[in-house]
Amino acid sequence: MTAMLSSRHLMTMDDVTADDIALILDTAESFAEVNERRIKKLPTLRGRTVINLFLEPSTRTRMSFEIAAKRLSADGVNFTASSSATVKGESLRDTAATLAAMSCDLVIVRHKYAGAPQIIAEMMDCSVVNGGDGVHEHPTQALLDLYTMRQNLGHLEGLTVGIVGDIAHSRVAGSLVPALRKVGATPIIIAPPTLLPARPDILGAEVAYDFDQVLPRLDVAYMLRIQMERFDEAGFPSLREYARLYGMNMKRLSAAKPELVIMHPGPMNRGVEISSDVADHARSLVLGQVESGVAVRMAVMYLLLGGADSGAAA
Ligand code: NCD
Hints:
The chain is an alpha/beta fold. The chain folds into two domains: 13-138 and 293-313, Rossmann fold (3-Layer(aba) Sandwich), CATH 3.40.50; 139-289, Rossmann fold (3-Layer(aba) Sandwich). Helices cover 37% and strands 14% of the residues. Strands 7-6-5-8-9 form a five-stranded parallel sheet, covered by helices on one side. Strands 2-1-3-4 form a four-stranded parallel sheet, sandwiched between helices. The protein is globular. Mean pLDDT is 91; it is low at 310-314. The chain binds N-carbamoyl-L-aspartate.
């Protein structure tokens, strides 16, 4: 079987077609089964080198990629550093050149600047996966979110997904909106005007300011973290006010469709965008998302590195 993606990189959702998405989700499904075994390891990427280049703080995404690489028997190397104002432009190029000299097969990049994975890809001869670049995109998060929705709701086409909150700072929304559109689902952006990007229409989704008004239409309420670290204090009256108008709580859960599921990319601000009882509710898929993350990242790595034709499968 030759299973390949149409692009050798995964930097934005533009790199994948609807067919690629279906292939990634189906492949992830077979890897999810491996993750339930006692011995959670396949020899598939034996001898391949994967570098985790994480220049911005991350716990779950970095760990998820690390575990995914290990489960496929790749040699994983972690390069973690906190990004400073000087880590950009030339110095990023130097980092890439250094990594290139070590001949690796795949680099996962997280960086506070949008476009950093592109710079790395230009300098290196290997595949690059964007593990989150600034406020731009986070494609593996969107893919694991689609996987989680499909697992729990049975299908993707026709779903209406409300993406609620801090859209302006959200690379998760930057990938999830186009991802949903590619699979025939309908994203609705729900946020106060102050938390929207300057041109919300460029995201290509319906925009709503009143959460309660659109709530009954939703199959999924995808709650975004209020990203305090990216704020310059403007446009945010109070967290309590935000929670009242845009937070998911038990009252809203009971006003929604009975099948509504709640998602959040983590880390959660409990009591702000999501109340604690909803976060731990049976209809919250938050831990399922983390679980799916490993299988989906295994699938992405496997398919980018040539799938069954990688020469390492034997
Ligand atoms: C997201 C991120 O880092 O962009 N988290 C994640 O990858 N699990 C969202 C967030 O930080 O709010």
